[in-house]
C-alpha cells in the first residue's frame, strides 16, 4: 500500500477476556508498526499493563472503569456451572457469562464515540477483540474500517450444511461426517432449546443500548460486513467455505517467549517425563474438580507413567498443597508455558483447552488431556480430539482414574498415533503461524479499499471483500425467483404437453 505523508493511526481495542485476548491483536499491530503505522491501545482501567511488552504503542486510551476483582472472581466462579447447550441442560450460565463480558459496552461505546468525534485523534483503522461490540457501532456510525479478531470461527455465523447446529456451540460433534442421526438431530434441536435464553439476552442487550440512546441493532446475519481475522487454522478447526472477508490467520504466536527459569529449570532437567498442568488465569477450579486432578496425577506418578508434574496454579488452591504433596510435583504461581511445552521432557499437557493453550500445544507438538470449562474450550477440546492429539474429559463426569488413564494413553501411545498426529499438526501450525503477516496485509488492503472508495465522505462502492449476497434480498441471493420461474415453466410445459396429447389422441 502506498503510505500517505502522515502515519496511518491503528487503534487496538481489547476490554474483556484477559490478556490472552489482547496479545494476538498486539502481535498483528507489531507487524504493522514496522510498516510505518502509529499504534494506539484502548482498554479498561487497570488493564493498561497488557501493553507493557509492546513499546511501540504510542498512546493508551482508557475506555471506562475496570471490573472490580471481587466481581470478576464471582462471575468466573459462576461460569464453572457452564454446561454444553444440550437438550434439557440449563443454559443460563452461558448467557450470564456473555452478559458479564458485554456489560462494559456503555462506557466503551461512549469513550470510543468521543474519540471518533475528535478529528485529530480519530483512528484510521480499528483492530478489536470479538467481545467489543462498540467497535462495530463505530464502523456503522463513523464508517471507520475495522477488523474483528476471533479465537475460533465466529459463533453463530458462517453456517454450513455439513456443520450441525449452531456454529461454535456444537454438541459432541464438529461436523456431520461421522455423526449419528441422533447427534445431528440433537444439534439442530438445541437451536429451539436455547431460544428462551436467547430472547432474554437480546432483550437485555436492547435495553442496555437504548439507555445510551442507540436504537440500531447490531448486525446478526450469517456473514460479517467487515474484516474478520480468526486465530485458528484448518488442521484444528473444521474446514469450511468462507467469504472473502473472513481469514484464518492462526496460530498467532509471539516470535520470542520467556525461557525457563528456576525452579522450573532445575525440576524439568531432573525429570525425564513431565506432565504439565495449567488452567489459565481466570478459571477457578472447584475443590472436587481440583482433588480429582490431583489424585489422578498421583496415580500417574505411582504407576511411573511420568516422573514429574509441573502445575502452574494460583493462590486459590494453595490450601490444598500444604501437606501430602508428592516431592515430584512442582507447584508454581507462574510457569513460562511455551518454554515448558517446548522442552523434550514434557510428555503431556493437562489443560482447559483455551485458544492460546490449544495453539501453543499444537505448535510445540504436545498431546493434550483437556478438561474444558466454558466458552470455546468445549469445542477446542473436541477439535484436539478430532485432530488426533487430545483426549477430552467432561468436567462434570470424570474421576481420578479417568484422568490417569487418559494421561497414560497419550504418554505411552502404544499405537504411535498421538506422536504422528502431534508431529503432523506441529509442522502445519509452524507454517500457518506465518499467516499473521497475511492478517496485517489484509488490514492494509481493507484500509486502501476504504480510502479509495470514499470520496468527500461519500461511499462510492461497497467493501471489495464483501460478497454480493450480503447486500441482496434473500430471494435474489438464493435465486428463488429463478426457481419459481423454472417450476412454473415446467408446469406449463407439462400441461401443454398433456393438452396436445389429448388433442391428437
Please provide a brief summary of the model.
43% of the residues lie in helices and 13% in strands.
Summary tags:
7-stranded parallel sheet, 13% strand, 43% helix, Rossmann fold, alpha/beta, single chain, 505 residues, disordered N terminus
What does this molecule look like?
With 505 residues, the chain is of the alpha/beta class. Helix 1 packs across helix 15 and helix 9 (287-302) packs across helix 13 (400-412). Among the domains are: 68-103 and 159-221, no CATH class; 264-432, Rossmann fold (3-Layer(aba) Sandwich); 472-504. Helix 1 (19-34) links the parallel strand 1 and strand 2 (38-43). It contains 17 helices and 15 strands. It has helices spanning 19-34, 69-78, 92-102, 105-117, 133-142, 181-193, 195-211, 264-270, 287-302, 337-342, 355-364, 377-386, 400-412, 417-432, 436-453, 474-477, 480-504; strands at residues 9-13, 38-43, 57-62, 125-129, 146-150, 227-230, 246-248, 274-278, 308-312, 329-332, 346-351, 368-371, 390-393, 454-455, 458-459. The strands form three sheets. The protein has a seven-stranded parallel β-sheet with strand order 3-2-1-4-5-6-7, with helices on both faces.
Number of helices: 17
CATH superfamily of the domain at 264-432: Glycogen Phosphorylase B
Summing up helix and strand content along with how strands pair, one would put the structural category as: alpha/beta
- CATH architectural label of the domain at 264-432: 3-Layer(aba) Sandwich
Helix content: 40-55%
Query: In whole angstroms, how far apart are the ends?
Result: 74 Å
Q: What is the overall silhouette?
A: globular
Cross-sheet strand order for the largest sheet:
3-2-1-4-5-6-7
Q: Could you please say which CATH topology of the domain at 264-432 applies here?
A: Rossmann fold
Q: Largest sheet at a glance?
A: 7 strands, parallel
Q: How much of the polypeptide forms β-strand, as a percent range?
A: 5-15%
Radius of gyration (CA) equals 25 Å
The count of β-strands is 15
> What is the average of the pLDDT values?
91
> CATH class of the domain at 264-432, anyone?
Alpha Beta
Low-pLDDT segments, ≥5 res? 1-5
GO molecular function: UDP-glycosyltransferase activity
Keywords: Glycosyltransferase, Membrane, Transferase, Transmembrane, Transmembrane helix
Transmembrane segments: 482-501
Family: Belongs to the UDP-glycosyltransferase family.
Amino acid at each position: 500500500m502506498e503510505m500517505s505523508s502522515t502515519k496511518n493511526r491503528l487503534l487496538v481495542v481489547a476490554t474483556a477476556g484477559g490478556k490472552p485476548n489482547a496479545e494476538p491483536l498486539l502481535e498483528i499491530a507489531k507487524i504493522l508498526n514496522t510498516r510505518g503505522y502509529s499504534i494506539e491501545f484502548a482498554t479498561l482501567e487497570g488493564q493498561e499493563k497488557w501493553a507493557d511488552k509492546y513499546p511501540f504503542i504510542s498512546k493508551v486510551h482508557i475506555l471506562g472503569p475496570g471490573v472490580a476483582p471481587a466481581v470478576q472472581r464471582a462471575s468466573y466462579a459462576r461460569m464453572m456451572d457452564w454446561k454444553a447447550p444440550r437438550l434439557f441442560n440449563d443454559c443460563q450460565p452461558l448467557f450470564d457469562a456473555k452478559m458479564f463480558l458485554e456489560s462494559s459496552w456503555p462506557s466503551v461505546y461512549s469513550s470510543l464515540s468521543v474519540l471518533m468525534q475528535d478529528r485529530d485523534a480519530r483512528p484510521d483503522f480499528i483492530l478489536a477483540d470479538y467481545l467489543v461490540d462498540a467497535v462495530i457501532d463505530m464502523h456503522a456510525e463513523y464508517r471507520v474500517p475495522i477488523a474483528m479478531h476471533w479465537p475460533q470461527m465466529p459463533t453463530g455465523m458462517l453456517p454450513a450444511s455439513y456443520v450441525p447446529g449452531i456454529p461454535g456451540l456444537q454438541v459432541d460433534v464438529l461436523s456431520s461426517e461421522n455423526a449419528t442421526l441422533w447427534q445431528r438431530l440433537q444439534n439442530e434441536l438445541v437451536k429451539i432449546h436455547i431460544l428462551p435464553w436467547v430472547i432474554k439476552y437480546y432483550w437485555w442487550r436492547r435495553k442496555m443500548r437504548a439507555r445510551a440512546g442507540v436504537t440500531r441493532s447490531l448486525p446478526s446475519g450469517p456473514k460479517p460486513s467487515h474484516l474478520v481475522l480468526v486465530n485458528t487454522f484448518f488442521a484444528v478447526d473444521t474446514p469450511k467455505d468462507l467469504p472473502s472477508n473472513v481469514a484464518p490467520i492462526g496460530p498467532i504466536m509471539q516470535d520470542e517467549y520467556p525461557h525457563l527459569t528456576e525452579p522450573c529449570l532445575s525440576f524439568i532437567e531432573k525429570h525425564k517425563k513431565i506432565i504439565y498442568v495449567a488452567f489459565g488465569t481466570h478459571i477457578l477450579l472447584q475443590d472436587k474438580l481440583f482433588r480429582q486432578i490431583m489424585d489422578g496425577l498421583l496415580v500417574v506418578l505411582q504407576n511411573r507413567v511420568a516422573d514429574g508434574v509441573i502445575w502452574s496454579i494460583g493462590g486459590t488452591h494453595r490450601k490444598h498443597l500444604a501437606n501430602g504433596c508428592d516431592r515430584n510435583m512442582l507447584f508454581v504461581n507462574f510457569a513460562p508455558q511455551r518454554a515448558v511445552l517446548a522442552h523434550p521432557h514434557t510428555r503431556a499437557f493437562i489443560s482447559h483447552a483455551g485458544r492460546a493453550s490449544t495453539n501453543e500445544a499444537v505448535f510445540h507438538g504436545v498431546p493434550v488431556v483437556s478438561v474444558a470449562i466454558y466458552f470455546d474450550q468445549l469445542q477446542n477440546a473436541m477439535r484436539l480430539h478430532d485432530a488426533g492429539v487430545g483426549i477430552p474429559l467432561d468436567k462434570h463426569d470424570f474421576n481420578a482414574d479417568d484422568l490417569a488413564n487418559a494421561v497414560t494413553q497419550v504418554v505411552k501411545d502404544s499405537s504411535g498415533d498421538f506422536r504422528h498426529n502431534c508431529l503432523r499438526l506441529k509442522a502445519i501450525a509452524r507454517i500457518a503461524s506465518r499467516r499473521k503477516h497475511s492478517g496485517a496485509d489484509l488490514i492494509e488492503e481493507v484500509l486502501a479499499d476504504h480510502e479509495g472508495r470514499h470520496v468527500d465522505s461519500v461511499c462510492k462502492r461497497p467493501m471489495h471483500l464483501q460478497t454480493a449476497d450480503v447486500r441482496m434480498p434473500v430471494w435474489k441471493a438464493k435465486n428463488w425467483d429463478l426457481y419459481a420461474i423454472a417450476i412454473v415453466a415446467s408446469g406449463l410445459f407439462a400441461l401443454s404437453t398433456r393438452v396436445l396429447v389429448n388433442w391428437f389422441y
